[in-house]
Amino acid sequence: MLLDVLCFVFYLIASAIVVAGMFDKKGPNKTLATVSVVIAIVLHAYILKLGVFLSPGQNMSMLNVASLIGWLISVTMLVTSFKLPNTILLPVIYGFSGLIVIANSQLPSAHMMNVGIKPTLLIHIGLSLFAYASLSIAFLYTLQLSYINLRLKEKKASLLHSSLPPLMAVENILFKLLLVGTVLLTLSLITGFMFLDDMFAKEQAHKTVLALIAWVIYGVIVIGHWLYGWRGRWVITTSILAAALLTLGYFGSRFVREVLLSS
Known about the structure:
Largest sheet: 2 strands, antiparallel
Helix content: over 70%
Mean pLDDT: 87
Strand order of the largest sheet: 1-2
């Protein structure tokens, strides 16, 4: 529990530093924020090691998976923060990761798997995690794009000083993330049909169907942008819809089974 609290505190410190810097013309103290979040990420990785890798298998409970995705996103956004405009997203990401760590410590659950018995399952799980992480980051950039659009229309961009990146830069990153995420999601679905026998079983059918619908929507967005230059409000709305379907498909039933019913 002490490790969970320390991890949460360092995520919170990093978030607070970034938020405070958004309203300062000099921007956030990047060195202090980076040190804080690196400590949080290291603690988070150790907590995941203790909670996921159990004998004789792996505990892939809903909160453990959410924690793992939060860790992947935090690491990715920290690394890319030195090159890409994502400062405004960092408090949301770090705050989410910290809250998931605390929630996982207070609501422990188990969904045991043994990847060693079926190594091909590891390929599917890895692709699924990276696909969801990529599309989650794309979702955050979608929100950022929508927020910048709103601020520019209201002529209040100066409120956040240099923390608001150029609109076109954010849009360019968004479509690259959507492309990468859609490719990974495609590979995840392909490996699922190749290596799993229960993709349309009673407990998995809704997850598969929702993932396929989200995949179609993402595919239409990517192809539409590539061929016809689609952008703007329609892309933002459909991206949010696809992200919601994907999240509901994976976490919806597991939340009911592992959190609501178990409590």
